[in-house]
Amino acid sequence: MNKNSLNHLDYYRLPWNLTDNSISWLEPTSKCNLVCEGCYRLNEKNGHKTIDQIKDDLDVFVKLRNADGVSIAGGDPLTHPDIIEIVKEVKKRNMKPIINTNGLALTKELLKELKKAGVFGFTFHIDSKQGRPKWKDKNELELNELRYQYAKMLYDEGNISCAFNSTVYEDTLQYVPGMVKWAQENIDKIHVMVFILYRAVNNKGYDFYLGPKKIDMSQLVYNEDPATRADIKANEVVELLRKDYPDFDPCAYLNGSEKPDSFKWLLTGRMATKKKVYGYMGKKAMEAIQMFNHLFRNKYLAYAEPKWARRGKTMLLMASFDKKLRRVFFKFYKNPLNLFRRLYYQSVMIIQPVDFMQDGRQNMCDGCPDITVWNGQLVWSCRMEEQLNFGHNLKTYPKGFLN
Ligand code: SF4
Fold it and tell me: How far away, in angstroms, is 107 Cα from ligand 1 center?
């Protein structure tokens, strides 16, 4: 067996499910100030929901789904004129407001106001396919300079969780190790790196049906660009990362709804200083963190407070029952000077969205955290264009199967 092939049973299956999850996904707007390749939502000028509609969506979450945090997404949520109130409404309902933004509209003044309103964290989506003014033609590594500006802004404001999202394409896959390295060099400011593997509607191989009616999918925004791979797997990214970090090893995952051994969310927790990676969190420690949070806070953990990411040494207490942390413990304290150094925790998440299986089934993330609300119901956010255009999720069959 290839030493890089991962067996899902070696890792902790995150306990997230439809009614009890770490996160929920709120879309207050479909308006955006950028036009990114690979975006799953149609950018609408008048796409803002009213504050009453947003409160209704939040109330649906409260009624149907226990969650630690709410990703306030879009569109770009910072284009919404009521963003401060939206953050307050999330907080009022005892959930952590996390803003998913491209960052373009974020100023220091707005950040201060958002913090006062209760914002818990930001996930900045920055990648080279966004056509950003002033950053056109920059590759993923050159964009680290822009990422740093946002990380520093949050760091200076203090106590705000900082995550970065990038969509990974065939031609940008090569940059993932460099981005992971950069994140380590800034581990005091960056808490989470997320890599979302590019996916698109597969018109070439499949027909789409609503009941007995065949649907033309070409109007949807996320149609496949035949020149680009839309099937990069999480395992491939791990394999690539292991060339630079031979010990790189995940601790937890979400499987596919149709294919149990596929990794749809693959979480790695690394223990490092800015200069050296000492090792990785194991499955037992991640299980303890999720269980502890659920036992004592009644929530599965989404984003940890930044102060916890700085307490890697406290996390080493779990070395008594987690063998990977035990290795970190011995490696770290081999150098007595490390008694006086800080050890950080940082998450690296790889997300592998919808995959089409040979028989036409769509392999979704089992226990999807990014569930949103449409018409008072919980739906997958990655397939909401189907709800908006056709009122339902579509079924897929191999091309010509039903003709
Ligand atoms: S199922 Fe879709 S919305 Fe849910 S986590 Fe996976 S890609 Fe995201």
Answer: 30
CA of 310 to the centre of ligand 1 (A): 29
The set of residues, in sequence order, having a beta carbon less than 8 Å from that of 176 and lying 6+ positions away, is 140, 168, 195, 237, 240, 241
355-356/344-351 β-pairing: unpaired
| 3-class DSSP state of 283 | helix
- What is the SS3 assignment for 217-253? HHHCCCECCCCCCCCCCHHHHHHHHHHHCCCCCCCEE
**Cis peptide, bond prior to residue 178, ω within 30 of zero:** no
Point out the ligand 1 atom lying closest to the alpha carbon of residue 380: 3
One-letter amino acid identity for 103? Answer: G
pLDDT in tens, 185-242: 999 999 999 999 999 887 788 999 999 999 988 766 566 666 789 899 999 999 999 9
Q: Is residue 321 over pLDDT 60?
A: yes
Tell me the pTM: 0.96
Q: In angstroms, how far is the first alpha carbon of the chain from the final one? A: 41
CB 343 within 8 A of CB 316: yes
Binding site membership of 364 for ligand 1 (Cβ less than 6 Å): yes
Helix or strand holding residue 115 (H, E): helix 108-117
Give the total residue count for the chain: 403
The preferred substitution site among 22, 165, 364 for testing ligand 1, maximizing ligand atoms within 8 Å of CB, is: 364
Does ligand 1 lie within 6 Å of residue 24's CB atom?
A: no
Nearest by Cα to 22 from 77, 91, 70, 94: 70
Q: What are phi and psi of 347, to 5 degrees?
A: -95, 140
Please indicate whether residue 368, judged by its CB atom, sits closer than 6 Å to ligand 1: yes
Q: Closest residue (by CA) to atom 6 of ligand 1?
A: 365
What ligand 1 atom has the least distance to the C-alpha of 257? 1
